[in-house]
Amino acid sequence: MDIIRAKMNSDEQMCCDFCKVPVFDYHRHCPRCLYDLCLDCCRDIRRSQTNVVRGEYAESKGPVVETNKDSASDRARLEPSAASVNDKLFPQPIDANDIGIRSLFPTWRVNNDGSITCGPHEAGGCGSSKLVLRRIFKINWIGKLVKSSQEMVNGCKAHDLENGCSSCNDSRRLDSIGRHNFGLSKCSDSDGIDGNSVYSSVLENLKYEGIVHFRKHWINGEPVIIRNAFEPSLSSSWDPLSIWRGIQEIMDEKLDENAIVKAVDCSNQSEVHIKLNQFIKGYSDGHKGEDGKLMMLKLKDWPPVSVLEEFLLCQRPEFIVNFPLVDFIHSKWGFLNLAAKLPPDALQSEVGLKLLIAYGRQQQPGKSDSVTNLMVKMGDVVHMLMHRAEMRYLCPKSLQPERPERIANGMAVHVNAHAPVQNLNLDMGEQSPEHTVSKSWSPSVGSSAELLSSSHSEQPKTNGVERSQPGALWDVFRRQDVPMLNKYLASNWEELTNNSQAMLSVKHPIYDQAVYLREHHKRVLKDQYGIEPRTFEQHIGEAVFIPAGCPYQVKNLQSTVQLALDFLSPESLRESARMGQEIRCLPNHHNAKLKMLEVGKIALYAASSAVKEIQKITLDPKFNRDIRFEDQNLTRAVSENLARVTKQRKVSCG
């Protein structure tokens, strides 16, 4: 068919005028009012017509039903053919995520000739013209890409990693590399639900071993912790004041310290405005609201992404170089980050670096916590704890933790929170989870300190240095826990939101990010629903990797600065596509829909990039003398070639 190509610039994004999700290629278009309808909505309309013929009119039309059903089914099969690539990559059960267009607009149906009329006026259309098929990509580009991909795959040998890590499944300790004490890389069984553990490794091991062990856990949708990402003493350069001063040095125009910035009040998740210098001061000293109560705030959208990237390149380049797996996940040149394969001007709001600055403190009765509510992301994310600070607000002296002192340069000074301290017993493995404390640091974390059964509780030292106080407490659920989690949230929505007027507006409440699960909530989930999160603490220099589709929540035990990077790995692509179908059914104003990734577009560009890389290698005379598609070393050669290309990319701050 000669399908007309839609006129779009590379930096433009087309969205369906009904469900508001991004359209990456084929769609239906109204020549009269320019209404655009995605193929998923077209299929919903066709399926609703088929269901009507099969059900409602069965009694009145008698034997005619079979004829109508066949013709309607034939027309319904026409629609997916235009999006066959997406359907084959990410098959969806029929009617699993139907918006219910027929119940909203009963008159919006399929015509006798199989065409679909533009949406009624109530849906934003003209209600008269027939919708015609349009495309965005070049003609036959996808067809050629599928053929090339199949040829590549058929000629390569792949390793099956879906069975996970045998050494971790057997609870065996991994040998230390080179007999040095780099810390324990272990995944051991816990006392809770089977597999309730987290693979944790130190950065030196990861650099030495490569990503194979990491991927054996990642492919199964498991969170991963990478420790010792940088020397803890360097974290002093990551406090908010130092960040603000560093940004001042790279900006052509000086920033106003009295500038108004946005923040989130953790007590009710509302947006507030505050002067930047007041927020920075409150990071360590605390900040009172108009009611005189101490506020728990999280800075929002500061610094801007472009400013942050320049700040990192010019002021903190060593942190980017040593960021765990940065060669694979960087938002622009990470060669296993599928989102990095998009054109440079493509719009993707949820991919890239972010700086997350938030207040925090130990839980106190009757006080609000600094938390990130239970949420789930369509892409992968990694959070690295760069800095933490204990809030020194005016609280009774008897409640303040004693801070050890030592002699330095003839003066008595407070011990740096990240420096090695002798005789500190931070081994929490033998203590009751309800009373996990250190000798020099006594505020109780409460039952939320039920740590994971991993190196965090078994190995308090890394490289002979005592570990610092934790900055954040994480709860991470499994992807397979989501149905039960949604069921629990829906059944207890009023209690969880502390609002008797709160109405559950969606059938997937996990996307609302409206609740934080306390200890008694988690006990109910374990006892009555059979699900339990992986719970662990995060320390300075630790990077927490969360796969797409894994619900998680975070509580700040102190004020923290986190460097976060969103990406999309090949292992998470199918889960991301599944979530995209769920998010499509949310209300059009829903925040999750506004941050939706263009998974189909990302997948196509990533496949195209992979094909080009393999073709380049096989056509390179230096390589093709020794390597062919059937050679098992092809993947290694691709990696080496990409590594060489990566080293050639030099970034300067001239």
From TrEMBL:
It is found in: Nucleus. Keywords: Metal-binding, Nucleus. Its main location: nucleus. GO terms for molecular function: chromatin DNA binding; histone H3K9 demethylase activity; metal ion binding; transcription coregulator activity. InterPro entries: JmjC_dom, LSDs-like. It holds the Pfam family JmjC. Residues 438-457 have a biased composition (Low complexity). GO terms for biological process: regulation of transcription by RNA polymerase II. Gene3D superfamilies: Cupin (2.60.120.650). Residues 331-584 form the JmjC domain. One of its GO terms (cellular component) is histone deacetylase complex. Belongs to the JARID1 histone demethylase family. This is JmjC domain-containing protein. It comes from Aegilops tauschii subsp. strangulata.
